[in-house]
Amino acid sequence: MSNNVIAIDGPAASGKGTVSKAISEKLQFNYLDTGKLYRAIGAKYLEGYEPISAAQNLDNNDLKIYDLQKPEIAQVASEIALIPEVRAALLQFQRNFSKKLPGAVLDGRDIGTVVCPDAKVKIFLTASLDSRASRRYFELVKQDTKISLETILDQIRQRDERDQKRRSSPLVAAVDAKVIDTSDLSIKEAVDEVFAYVRSKI
Ligand code: CDP
Asked: Which residues are within 8 A (CB) of 137 and not within 5 positions of it... i.e. 6 or more apart?
């Protein structure tokens, strides 16, 4: 079993996905965006499925068939993420993934605290609300999504609050996580800083 696990947590649009993907490519590690699991259950819920059984029966196709980037799916994902049985059902999938060789990078909200508390490297990526909202705005505009910066700010604020205040696995930095604020960093600078830290640990 490998313990080459890199846990990258943080609030919405903090750069976790971009940074995690880049780190996994540099190390040739497997990469799991755990937000996609919650988004897929959110998408199924919007279609009328019951979220707990959707989570218990999640299959890889669910991660491919929906447009999981949509802002309305992010919102409903953070609502179904409140349900402890949904979280429990997704836990084993994430833990199995973390054992892949030669190592795995997982990004999410509770990787360092709950999913992989023994991860060799834990990072908590954060950034100011304004910079997170404008990054997400430009990402979505590039994909032709019609949404205002104002709406994104509101949605991210609501999601952060729900994620931080929920009772089951709230969004919080693990005590042994390295906190990195990316507000004033370019993507390259953020990747370089995270990679230097990872290298010091693995
Ligand atoms: O990409 P972004 O940071 O906006 O969101 P995401 O990582 O795709 O996560 C969508 C929602 O799923 C979050 O707002 C959380 O409520 C939930 N989530 C979670 O509860 N635990 C995780 N490990 C990952 C996501």
From this structure: 147, 149, 152
